[in-house]
Amino acid sequence: MGIKAVLKCGKPFSIEEKESILIADEGIEFRYHDVETQFETSVSVYQILREDVRAIAIDDAVHVATIIGKGNMTVYHDITTKKIDWTRSQRRFYEDSQMKILLAYENNDELIQRLKNYASLK
C-alpha cells in the first residue's frame, strides 16, 4: 500500500527509510533516515506534543497520515552521539502546519486505529 504514496507523492517519502513512529500520551514522535544525506547515522526526528495536535487525517487509499499542528524537527548528523545538524533543524511547524507520514508498517491497521483514536481524544 505504501508504494502508492511513494509513486503518487514522491518526496518526502522517496527519501525516507528506517522510519519509526512512537505514539505516547505526551505526543507523537516520527523518525527516519534521509537517504540523500551523506551521513549513514543521520536521523530526522519530528515531535509534536499532544496539546499541539490540531487534527490527524488518514488517507486510506495511500496509507498516509497527515498530522496538523505545532511541532518541531531535529536533524541529527549522528544519532548515536546526538550531533545536531543545526542548519537542517531550523524547520518549524506552526498551528496549521502539516507533517505527512507514510504508514507502511507491519502493524499498519493497529497503527491507523491508534492515530484515529489519538485524534478523537483531543
Could you give the topology of this structure?
Blueprint: H1 2-9, E1 16-23, E2 27-34, E3 43-49, E4 53-59, E5 64-69, E6 71-78, E7 83-84, E8 92-93, E9 98-102, H2 108-120
Antiparallel strand pairs: 1-2, 2-3, 3-6, 4-5, 5-9, 6-7, 6-8
Provide a quick synopsis of the model.
With 122 residues, the protein is an alpha+beta fold. The chain has helices at 2-9, 108-120; strands at 16-23, 27-34, 43-49, 53-59, 64-69, 71-78, 83-84, 92-93, 98-102.
Helix content: 10-25%
Strand content: 35-45%
Instruction: Provide the succession of SSEs.
Output: HEEEEEEEEEH
| Major β-sheet annotation | 6 strands, antiparallel
What structural class do you assign from the helix and strand content? alpha+beta
- What general outline do the C-alpha atoms trace? globular
Taking all Cα atoms into account, the compactness measure Rg is 14 Å
Low-confidence regions: 1-8
- How far apart the termini lie comes to 28 Å
Quantity of strands, as a count: 9
Mean pLDDT over all positions: 79
Summed up, the helix count is: 2
